[in-house]
Amino acid sequence: MQAGKPILYSYFRSSCSWRVRIALALKSIDYEMVTVNLIKDGGQQFSEEFQALNPMKQVPALKIDGITIGQSLAIIEYLEETRPTPRLLPQDPKKRAHVRMISDLIASGIQPLQNLSVLKQVGQEKQLSWAQQAISSGFNALERILQSTAGKYCVGDEVSMADLCLVPQVANADRYKVDLTPYPTISRISKSLLTLEAFQVSHPCRQPDTPPELRA
Amino acid sequence: MKQVPALKIDGITIGQSLAIIEYLEETRPTPRLLPQDPKKRAHVRMISDLIASGIQPLQNLSVLKQVGQEKQLSWAQQAISSGFNALERILQSTAGKYCVGDEVSMADLCLVPQVANADRYKVDLTPYPTISRISKSLLTLEAFQVSHPCRQPDTPPELRA
């Protein structure tokens, strides 16, 4: 049986999907994209079909090498282990720990608290302040951590998994009108990363499912 | 991050439980907490992340404070059952004796404490037989007992085992 290309289930605006799109671009992995609209039809992630594929009813999910993986960081670590160049995690275990710590700070400590389904539960009135609180609270911690880990990028001078998490979270910060003045390191690093091609081709404004009014 | 856990080890301080565990795995590799096979490792990480990103943050102390006392219980229950619905399905294809196959992994380390939270917030575990079975089985192991919240230096007397 010939293995087909990997298939990524993605939504243009999902920050978690963006992380994986960046990883695939950096590693020059050719793949097919199936877009899942999180809003349309009550949310296509709730369809029986998608649930069977990914019981978490979330994007991203990657079908690759005969398995389906959910959770963006689990996907990225799998790509790193099976397609190791260019690296997304440094060789040194202490630097790897820093990369994972920063990634987890964003992927567990910030993003879940301001994702679509939580904001729905919080209700329209409180959504904006709730999202802002989650993001600034996390960015306060992250800005401090970066003082000791950052070089050109989040950890030293090589792009890592931490940077893949940072840029989409900064985009969410912009979307929820979080003032980034208190976070100069976060801002500098994010701007710098956005000049790289992998961060541009994967950008929400350039996806197959990007609506016309948001298209770059 | 103003959070626990944090581990001071080998001259560095690491926050975020999974980052800590992966560091321990890389520097003290036996016994393993992640399988050798990359696909099984992906399953272990997926399950760990489902819990550590998809459930726990939504029902941790600071979020429940923001939600307010009235809504706390139903909010926590919703976060946990929603996550456990997905997890129970995933375990159908990954679980053996434990979450992924028959060896204890990082996924199991995430499971037991989350089941304890489920009990704490009175989530009915009947819909999750695989989760229940695995958790009960893990709790018979010494490492899961010595580390139990009811046996810590700071366990209050009324909760002590």
Automatic annotation (TrEMBL), chain A:
Co-factor(s): glutathione
Pfam families, alphabetized: GST_C_3, GST_N_2
Subcellular localization: Cytoplasm
Entry keyword Isomerase: yes
GST N-terminal domain segment(s): 4-87
Keywords, ordered alphabetically: Cytoplasm, Isomerase, Phenylalanine catabolism, Transferase, Tyrosine catabolism
Protein name per its UniProtKB record: Maleylacetoacetate isomerase
Automatic annotation (TrEMBL), chain B:
Entries under Gene3D superfamilies matching the protein: 1.20.1050.10, Glutaredoxin
A Pfam family the protein falls into: GST_C_3
EC number: 5.2.1.2
InterPro entries: Glutathione-S-Trfase_C-like, Glutathione-S-Trfase_C_sf, Glutathione_S-Trfase, Glutathione_S-Trfase_N, GST_C, GST_Zeta, GST_Zeta_C, Thioredoxin-like_sf
Ranges for domain GST C-terminal: 37-157
Biological-process GO terms, alphabetical: glutathione metabolic process; L-phenylalanine catabolic process; L-tyrosine catabolic process
Name assigned to this protein: maleylacetoacetate isomerase
Source organism of the structure: Camelus ferus (Wild bactrian camel)
Gene: GSTZ1
